[in-house]
Amino acid sequence: MAPAPRLVDAVNERLEEFLADRASILRSISDDLDPLAAFSERFLSGGKRFRARFCSLGFDAVRGSRREHDASATAERYAVVSASAALEVFHAAALVHDDLIDNSDTRRGAPAAHRVFEAQHRDGRWAGDGEDYGRATAILLGDLLLGWSDELLDEGLAALRDQAASRETRLEFNRMRTEVTVGQYLDILEERAWLTRPEAEQRTRAERVVVHKSARYSIEAPLTIGGAIAGGSAGQLEALRAFGLPLGIAFQLRDDLLGVYGDPAVTGKPAGDDLREGKRTVLIAIARERLSTGQRRLLDELLGDPALDAEQIRMLQDTIRDCGAVDEIESEITTNTDRALAALGSSAMDREAARDLADLARAVTRRES
């Protein structure tokens, strides 16, 4: 496999090329569309490219890290890089919509998309309500990015000679898109409907959101998309899923901890942001199981209040930590990571790719942002 920096460079170059082309198309329609292109280019200019790396390693796990450099291999590499770039654009679309749904002010240390366009409205002294304009524009930008992710994927698949691999890749991508969309709905549902659900179901329902909104979309889907491009068999793709799903769960559980305890200077989000947004995560479900009736009532009253101040955030952080919920989540992260690595060790995938996947697994579950 090409080392991760080389893959990231290739994906970045593909994104720059694609976005420059789409910016040219937008400019041919109207200069008024420049802010959409500018935000897209800026928003997609950085990031850890975890999804791209899992996609490439999914390919290598099936095909092998040492391949002949012929025309077919060149076409496959172009397809992998394009699919990896498509995953990054899809992720950007999901973040734009997610920030809008959650009323988040920031993303990656900068204003969220709807806030950027709200400020544009304010600075331009335009008619109407600036917040409405920002929200409407962010919805359209997210939709535009979703369409562009499809275009990127299709451009890569068009180069493949193996039409069966092309069809399977498209099916995997479509499945991912459905999973994350309905997973987002389930997340919204839990934030509103939790009070009417039986206490015994709270954790199970939170775990369902983890699987469908994040675990499959963040790791399992990129892996199987890469494996499908390589022409992976049903058994090979299932082996990638057996590794990817528990790792994806561990990835999201780490994200849940960062949403409550992450350093804003590292995460680019305010401290305790998930508490203000009222996220009904597995962390919260475990805390509610462990807290006394009075503590649980206070948690329920404060969770989801966008006006929580720093002192209230610290109090909630301490309450959740002191009841042992954080330790239990850390244990769940370790258990799921170990399960993923065990599946990796028992599979017949390429050994070099398996080693790289193990290294990446540890990186994504120990991250601080």
Entry keywords:
369 residues, 16 helices, mainly alpha, single chain, two-stranded antiparallel ribbon
Spatial order of strands in the largest sheet: 1-2
Tally of alpha and pi helices: 16
Q: What is Rg? A: 21 Å
Mean pLDDT: 94
- Give the overall shape, derived from the CA principal axes: globular
Structural class, from secondary structure content? mainly alpha
Low-confidence parts: none
Describe the structure in brief.
The protein is mainly alpha-helical.
SSE map:
Layout: H1 4-29, H2 34-43, H3 50-63, H4 71-102, E1 106-107, E2 110-111, H5 113-124, H6 130-157, H7 163-193, H8 202-229, H9 234-261, H10 264-267, H11 273-277, H12 282-290, H13 293-302, H14 310-322, H15 325-346, H16 351-365
Antiparallel strand pairs: 1-2
Helix pairs in contact: 1-2, 1-4, 3-4, 3-8, 3-16, 4-6, 4-8, 5-6, 7-8, 8-9, 8-12, 9-15, 12-15, 15-16
